[in-house]
């Protein structure tokens, strides 16, 4: 089966590589030469443009930064919706506004295509290991068609409802993650200010009630976990600007239905302050540096 894969960044690159390893014929594309070089080195075929990548594809997957990129790819400048072969299945794995996902899905359906929103959780480590969680919105029939493709890149699949429901659920998850990361940094900074060793404090928390992904997998303190972005100058991982985008989408989603998200609003401001401090391109765990400069 031929799969077009557009967007080969921190997440899309390893996902495309896993699809290729699972035996799919992958035609990939990205605007960045660096991103292309990484997947090419793993034997993935790269097209000269998104338009070329989707030619003859039965499945089209996109993994782009934000709503504007997804709308532009399918509806705007690239206008892929009109070029993709009728009957094809579109899977957008980017985290975008639920309203954007609904708009693109409606346009796809009107062109005789099927579409699901399937944002992911699990980070770069999950994308690389093929253990992502897919959080899906769209028709059940389209999800069943997508299931084997998703299983080549992940291990858990949740069907949340109609088009856009996957995005709403993903925003709920990331709003919780954003708050938890910020407060974990705050707790470690408090301990360090009292002379505690951040590694021992993290090890204790990881088996106590303060445990979370932020203590155990992506600890914000340098040197606590060898493979965490904090231990490599906050590079790779999940960018602060992407977290800021997701927190903003979560707050907008709350405003849309009159929900109260006081901690989400507060944490959104922390990621905005972290961006203003010049760390927009770093992993979002660098938010700890608003509380202290970890040694
Ligand atoms: P990234 O910035 O590393 O990658 C995005 C890629 O899209 C870049 O390589 C960029 O060149 C490419 N791109 C942009 N516009 C394009 C276009 N028109 N055509 C082709 N390529 C284009 O971002 P990422 O970390 O891979 O995240 C992608 C999405 O996944 C985001 O929506 C993010 O919120 C979400 N996400 C990220 C993580 C993570 O840990 N990084 C985890 C879960 C979800």
Automatic annotation (TrEMBL):
Gene Ontology BP term (one):
L-valine catabolic process
Output the Pfam families linked to this UniProt entry: NAD_binding_11, NAD_binding_2
Keywords attached to this Swiss-Prot or TrEMBL record, sorted alphabetically, are: Branched-chain amino acid catabolism, NAD, Oxidoreductase
**Class of this enzyme:** oxidoreductase
Q: Which residues catalyse the reaction?
A: 170
The record's catalysed reaction(s) read:
3-hydroxy-2-methylpropanoate + NAD(+) = 2-methyl-3-oxopropanoate + NADH + H(+)
The Enzyme Commission number assigned here is 1.1.1.31
Please tell me whether the keyword NAD is annotated for this protein. yes
Q: Provide the GO MF annotations for this entry.
A: 3-hydroxyisobutyrate dehydrogenase activity; NAD binding; NADP binding
Q: Please state every residue range assigned to the domain named 6-phosphogluconate dehydrogenase NADP-binding.
A: 2-161
Q: Does the keyword Plastid apply?
A: no
Q: Per the database record, which ranges form the 3-hydroxyisobutyrate dehydrogenase-like NAD-binding domain? A: 164-290
Q: In which pathway does it act?
A: Amino-acid degradation; L-valine degradation
Q: Which family does it belong to?
A: Belongs to the HIBADH-related family.
Instruction: Please give the name of this protein.
Output: 3-hydroxyisobutyrate dehydrogenase
Species of the source? Ottowia oryzae
């Amino acid at each position: 089966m031929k799969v077009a894969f557009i967007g080969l960044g921190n997440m899309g690159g390893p996902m495309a590589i896993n699809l290729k390893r699972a035996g799919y014929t992958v035609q990939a594309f990205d605007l960045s030469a660096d991103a292309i070089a990484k997947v090419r080195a793993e034997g993935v075929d790269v097209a000269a443009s998104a338009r070329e990548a989707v030619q003859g594809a039965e499945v089209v997957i996109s993994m782009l930064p934000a709503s504007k990129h997804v709308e532009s790819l399918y509806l705007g400048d690239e206008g892929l919706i009109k070029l993709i072969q009728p009957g094809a299945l579109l899977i957008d794995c980017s985290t975008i506004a639920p309203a954007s996902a609904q708009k693109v899905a409606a346009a796809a359906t009107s062109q005789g295509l099927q579409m699901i929103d399937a944002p992911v959780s699990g980070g770069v480590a999950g994308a690389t290991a093929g253990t992502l969680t897919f959080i899906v919105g769209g028709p059940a029939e389209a999800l069943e068609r997508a299931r084997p493709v998703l299983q080549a890149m992940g291990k858990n699949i949740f069907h949340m409802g109609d088009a856009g429901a996957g995005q709403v659920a993903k925003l709920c998850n990331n709003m919780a993650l954003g708050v938890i990361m910020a407060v974990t940094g705050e707790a470690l900074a408090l301990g360090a200010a009292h002379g505690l060793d951040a590694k021992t404090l993290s090890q204790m928390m990881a088996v106590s009630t303060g445990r979370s992904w932020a203590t155990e997998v992506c600890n914000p303190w340098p040197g606590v976990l060898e493979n965490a972005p904090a231990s490599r100058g906050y590079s790779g991982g999940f960018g602060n600007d992407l977290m800021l985008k997701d927190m903003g989408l979560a707050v907008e989603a709350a405003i849309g239905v009159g929900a109260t998200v006081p901690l989400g609003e507060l944490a959104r401001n922390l990621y905005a302050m972290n961006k203003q401090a010049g760390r927009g391109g770093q992993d979002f765990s660098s938010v700890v540096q608003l509380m202290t400069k970890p040694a």
